[in-house]
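About this split. The held-out portion is used to measure sequence recovery: a designer receives only the structure tokens and must propose an amino acid at every position. Recovery is the fraction of positions where the proposal matches the reference. Here is one held-out target exactly as it appears in the evaluation file.
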């Protein structure tokens, strides 16, 4: 049976025979505007405009595989469908389709109007067992079409990340600096300590930390203290004891209640990524950008990627408190910076600039991601085998979005590349 989403595609792209188009009552029909595709509940297309018997109607269009689906879905009892001006079906049993108020809706039947080659190409994509559905057909598509769709996918991926962050911002009523602080801290925690570091940022708000952006010792005291990593201790470790005293002073000064311990974990990670090292690096990052929202400007992208973010001197000889190690400078690596850029800074920059009424957000995403290295993984490699370029993160983020959100879900009808292939069918 033909799926309904295929009929949605046929309608919105007008991929059917329009010659002498008529309703089931033999009324001539001219489609002025197919409408806006609705992905949520309610009629399939809104704001459509069609001319029937020289009268122009403006409203909804509903589509079903069989005309009787109108009744199976109980639309005849739903007043939301009373403004339906046209019903589209692949096949019909001849029974009139009526609104909740009893009036009959004009209907078009498409069974004999859809090109067989279009359905054949669609089935070929849907039944494909290749790494992505159109891997054997994509050479039919013009490179400019592929390029523009991958670019669109990269922006869509950042928009989706931004939507998740926006929801968190709204729920917690955060300002921009606190939002950025929490998200950066969480990402610095890595997969193991992500939520623990987010809680650290919530316990120690940015409004307190910004008072000490010129004082690395005080920043570390506040961050280690709020994580409850400054309890107990050995007397021979002078740095630890000094941090502990400073934390007690600052906690009293800012009326910070002694928090319960955080479940910070050290297992299953490289020593260079230990939470103690990350906390010291976070302190250095706070110093480099005293006004955190400066990170959201295009000019700051290069600065962030180029500056050295290290640790305080103590951590050059330690990975944990009390355990001396051979000296090594522990810089925040390029890959970690790029993770922060792609997953936190760019999505929040997108939200920030949109909230301030600035245009060219797509360019902001492109300018940010083209500065980052590409990902070469199981999601991007199948496309690279067909000759599609993957030169920087703008490419790879687009390919990842395409693979995960479209190819793996067989959403070929919503894909620009899939649409081009169907058009060639």
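Reference sequence for scoring:
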């Amino acid at each position: 049976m033909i799926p309904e989403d295929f009929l949605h595609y046929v309608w919105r792209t007008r991929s059917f025979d329009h010659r002498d188009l008529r309703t089931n009552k033999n009324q001539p029909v001219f489609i002025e505007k197919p409408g806006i595709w609705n992905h949520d509940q309610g009629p399939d297309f809104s704001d459509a405009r069609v001319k029937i018997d020289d009268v122009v109607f403006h409203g909804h269009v509903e589509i079903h595989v069989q005309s009787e689906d109108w009744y199976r879905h109980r639309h005849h009892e739903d007043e939301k469908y009373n403004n339906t001006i046209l019903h589209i079906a692949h096949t019909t049993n001849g029974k009139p389709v009526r609104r909740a108020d009893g009036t009959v809706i004009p209907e078009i039947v498409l069974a004999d109007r859809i090109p067989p080659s279009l359905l054949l190409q669609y089935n070929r994509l849907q039944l494909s067992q290749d790494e992505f559905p159109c891997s054997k057909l994509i050479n039919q598509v013009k490179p400019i079409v592929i390029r523009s769709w991958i670019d669109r996918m990269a922006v869509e991926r950042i928009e989706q990340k931004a939507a998740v962050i926006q929801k968190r911002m709204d729920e917690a009523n955060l300002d921009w600096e606190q939002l950025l602080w929490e998200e950066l801290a969480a990402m610095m925690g890595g997969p193991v300590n992500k939520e623990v570091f987010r809680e650290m940022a919530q316990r120690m708000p940015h409004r307190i930390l910004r008072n000490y952006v010129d004082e690395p010792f005080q920043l570390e005291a506040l961050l280690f203290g709020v994580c409850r990593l400054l309890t107990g201790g050995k007397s021979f470790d002078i740095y630890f004891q000094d941090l502990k005293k400073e934390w007690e002073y600052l906690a009293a000064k800012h009326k910070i209640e002694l928090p319960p311990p955080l479940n910070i974990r050290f297992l299953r990670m490289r020593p260079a990524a230990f939470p103690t090292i990350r906390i010291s690096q976070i302190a250095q990052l706070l110093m480099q950008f005293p006004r955190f929202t400066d990170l959201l400007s295009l000019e700051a992208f290069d600065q962030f990627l180029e500056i050295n973010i290290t640790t305080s001197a103590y951590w050059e000889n330690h990975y944990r408190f009390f355990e001396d190690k051979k000296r090594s400078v522990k810089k925040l690596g390029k890959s970690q910076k790029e993770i922060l850029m792609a997953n936190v800074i760019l999505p929040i920059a997108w939200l920030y600039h949109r909230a301030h009424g600035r245009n060219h957000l797509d360019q902001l995403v492109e300018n940010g991601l083209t500065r980052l290295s590409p990902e070469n993984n199981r999601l991007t490699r199948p496309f690279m085998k067909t000759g599609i370029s993957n030169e920087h993160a703008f490419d790879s983020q687009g390919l990842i979005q395409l693979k995960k959100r479209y190819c793996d879900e067989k959403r070929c009808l919503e894909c620009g590349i899939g649409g081009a292939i169907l058009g060639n069918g």
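Annotator remark: Residues 113 and 120 are 14 Å apart (CA to CA).
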